Amino acid sequence: MWQPVRAAVPSKDYQDEIWKHCFKRSCARSRRKSRNYKRMLIHIDSMKVTK
After folding, report:
1. Host domain of residue 17
2. What is the number of domains present in the chain?
3. What percent of the chain has pLDDT over 90?
4. Burial, 28: exposed, middle or buried (Cβ in 10 Å; 0-12, 13-18, 19+)?
5. Whole-number Å distance between alpha carbons of 44 and 19
């Protein structure tokens, strides 16, 4: 059900860090994970631009 987005993720380690920091801490308990996942990907994309 979860589809990886290759374009927004520069590396596996970076993805895992963002995942732990932004997703598991704030959204893991939520049942609307798909919406939170999309929001997280947008956040990754914006961070990639700033970085």
Report:
1. 12-50
2. 1
3. 0
4. exposed
5. 9
